[in-house]
Amino acid sequence: MWKELFSVAFLRAVLAEFLATAIYVFFGLGSVLNWPEPPSVLQSAITFNLAAATAVQISWHASGAHVNPAVTVAFLLGSRVSLVKAACYVVAQLVGGIAGAAVLYAVTAAGVRGSFGINAVRINISLTQAVMVELILTLQLVLCYFASTDSHRSTGSPAIMIGVSVALGHLIGHYYSSSSMNPARSFGPAVVVGMFPNHWVKGLLPGLLCIGHFVGASGRLLLPFCLWEDQSAVLPRGLCRGTSARWSRCKAGKLLPPFGCKQL
Question: Which residue would you say has higher pLDDT here, 184 or 200?
């Protein structure tokens, strides 16, 4: 674990997460400013789509292109990344969100900033309704990540599909909570402006944990069952997800056919 922490590849991955998240937040927030009128929902959805696709393409080979703490938590619980890497990724993403928002704030005229894209519950929408919608929107995004990064899927572009998933969530979420789906996207402008709406503080952490637990379980058993043609290996793949060291310590391995993780 400690060798991983101080390796060049690990540092490159963390830096890639920081840079990609900063780019995503900069361009995403830039699309919701008043120039001079607020943009249409479609305009901001397309911009977030393109920003997400660009961020994923930039960091794909270096870090896996999480660019989102909710995605990292889900991958951690799905045994796709180690605890140390997940913690460093989340920190890099949050700092990247702050950096992207800070740069945009510095280069934008005061009269144009407005609320600076801070997520807020819409009128006639309760906190519970907004949090539930965010859960659903982030869930579909994280499931899209799992499907796009599946080793058995050799066609298609993950960057394009993840961007489409972000746009889809934005088109609906805009009317409930200004559409976050990404704690780093909400955290960055809130820190820069110094505004933490009550709903954001209450709803973010529970929502992130629920999404991570549910999608982590889905990614290990339910999602493979739906995606893989060879259903006989679904349980071994789910149990074996992770490192070879984890497989060697897995007691369930005694109950499974004699093959290793590398054969799945």
Answer: 184
pTM, full prediction: 0.76
Encoding tokens for residue 96?
């990247």
Tokens found for residue 197 = 């709406």
Rounded CA gap, 256 and 238, in Å?
A: 12
Identity at 121, one-letter amino acid code: V
Tokens 């298609």 — which residue?
156
Q: Copy the structure tokens of residue 86.
A: 């997940």
- pLDDT tens-digit readout, 243-255: 444 434 444 444 4
Q: What is the CATH number of domain 2-227?
A: 1.20.1080.10
Percent of the chain clearing pLDDT 70 (strictly above): 70
Q: What is the DSSP letter of 152?
A: T
How many Å apart are CA 5 and CA 84, to the nearest integer? 7
The angle at the Cα of 73, spanning 71 to 76, to the nearest 5 degrees, equals: 110
Q: Is the pLDDT of residue 48 over 70?
A: yes
- The residue type at 29: L
User: Where in the chain are all domains bearing CATH 1.20.1080.10?
Assistant: 2-227
What is the Cα–Cα distance from 45 to 172, expressed in whole angstroms?
10
Q: Phi and psi for 32 in degrees, rounded to 5?
A: -110, 10
3-state percent breakdown (helix, strand, coil) of the chain, nearest 5: 75, 0, 25
Q: What is the DSSP string of 30-71?
A: HTTS-SSSPPPHHHHHHHHHHHHHHHHHHHHHHH----SHHH
Tokens representing 170 are: 């934005």
What is the rounded end-to-end Cα distance, in angstroms, of the chain?
A: 24
Residues in contact with 213: Cβ distance below 8 Å, sequence separation at least 6, in sequence order: 77
For helices 8-30 and 41-63, the axis angle rounded to 10 degrees is: 170
